[in-house]
Design a protein that fits this description.
disordered C terminus, 10 helices, 7 strands, three-stranded mixed β-sheet, alpha/beta, single chain, 221 residues
């Protein structure tokens, strides 16, 4: 797993507004937002799940990071907003992952008002997974990471790729993508080990390298 954490009072304060005001050219400003979009796309394309560690506020592009992450754990004091509209700057790029996490009307409310929402509301709206006390943040993330890394790495990577692919597809195409993905998975070594272990009433051995027999035993080259 990959954990994104902030260094300071906020997870991220968003873009440097002074920097943008100091060079108001299409090449500079456009390049800045292009680079930001590449970061968000990279988060989606990584084989590992990306977790946002939210220890403080997350406005504008900071909220975009949380929305773009696969998972998010926040302290109770955390606050989230797509606040650019308050400065005459609609949060266009943050609206992309935001609208893929929260219901449309809630996304519109955040984008049109620029108001902050608290951590509990963010979780209830679909922007976060867990809300904890500040002194429990790292332990909670460690527990979440621990649950993920117990699973076979290839299955997690393939599942993440399929999730994002089907999300943007029409219903029939989504089922086609999912059907092909689960067929590959079922015929692969991890399902052979995992399903075999279930049928044999034992724990799976994900550390077994190389092809696996239907009994779940490792066949070494």
């Amino acid at each position: 797993a990959v954990v994104i954490a902030g260094n300071g009072p906020a997870l991220s304060g968003g873009h440097d507004l002074k920097e943008m005001m100091g060079c108001r050219t299409e090449a500079f400003v456009g390049g800045l937002f292009e680079a930001c979009s590449r970061v968000m796309l990279t988060m989606a394309s990584l084989p590992q799940p990306v977790i946002a560690r939210v220890h403080g506020t997350a406005p504008a592009a900071g909220c975009q990071i949380v929305a773009a992450a696969a998972l998010a754990v926040a302290v109770r004091e955390a606050r989230f907003a797509t606040s650019g509209v308050n400065l005459g700057l609609f949060c266009a790029t943050p609206s992309v992952p935001l609208s893929r996490n929260v219901a449309r009307k809630r996304a519109f409310e955040m984008l049109f008002t620029g108001d902050f929402i608290d951590a509990q509301t963010a979780r209830d709206w679909g922007l976060g997974n867990r809300v904890v006390a500040a002194d429990e943040l790292d332990a909670e993330i460690a527990r979440l990471v621990g649950r993920i890394i117990e699973k076979p790495r290839d299955v997690i990577a393939a599942g993440k790729a399929l999730f994002y692919a089907q999300l943007e597809a029409r219903l029939a195409e989504a089922y086609d993508l999912a059907g092909k993905a689960i067929t590959r998975n079922m015929l692969g070594p991890d399902a052979a080990e995992g399903v075999g272990a279930f049928l044999e009433k034992r724990k799976p051995n994900w550390n077994c390298s190389g092809p696996r027999a239907t009994t779940g035993q490792c066949i070494l080259p």
